[in-house]
Amino acid sequence: MKKALWYIAGGVFLLSALVFAADKSNSDTIKADAVKTNTIKAAKMNATGKVIYISDESIKIERTVRGNVEAMQFALENPAENIAVNDTVKIAYTNQDGKLVANRVLKIDSKKKEVKPVGEKSASANK
Questions:
Q1: Does residue 122 fall inside a structural domain?
Q2: Which of 10, 60, 98, 108 gives 73 a disulfide partner, CB atoms 3.0 to 4.6 angstroms apart?
Q3: Neighbouring-strand partners of residue 72
Q4: Rounded CA gap, 53 and 117, in Å?
Q5: In whole angstroms, what is the distance from residue 38 CA to residue 97 CA?
């Protein structure tokens, strides 16, 4: 009778070990199937320069880089408003398939305020 109980207990132990082993191998295959996806973002660049040509589809600016003057032409995603030739602009752009595409065009105020030195009097105040 004692031998029969030991055989039954051993059989239960073996069967439970087989069940746990089968569960672990299934969970490993599920984890191996998951694939991490990487998204590639386009690099955003900036250019500042003077407008030499503008239309609804494109804009061309002239900028100075390290003493060299270069012209850059951009395709516009949206038409640029309130920008005319000879305005100074800053353009945020990306390179898509070898073509420069302007995402944003900002007009820059190039007017400088005159600053008078403190303590200097005008000529009419001395009279």
A1: no
A2: 60
A3: 61
A4: 40
A5: 20
pLDDT digits over 95-121, tens only? 888 889 998 888 888 665 343 444 444
CB crowding 17-48: b at 16 or more within 10 Å, else e: eeeeeeeeeeeeeeeeeeeeeeeeeeeeeebe
What Å distances lie between residue 1 and 6, 7, 8, 75, CA to CA?
9, 10, 11, 91
Domain count, the chain: 2
Is residue 60 over pLDDT 90? yes
End-to-end Cα spacing for the chain: 132
Give domain status of residue 19, yes or no.
Answer: yes
What is residue 29's predicted lDDT score, i.e. its pLDDT?
A: 53
What are φ and ψ of residue 95, in 5° steps? Answer: -100, 110
Nearest to 51 by CA among 79, 78, 72, 81: 72
State whether 2 and 49 are in the same domain: no
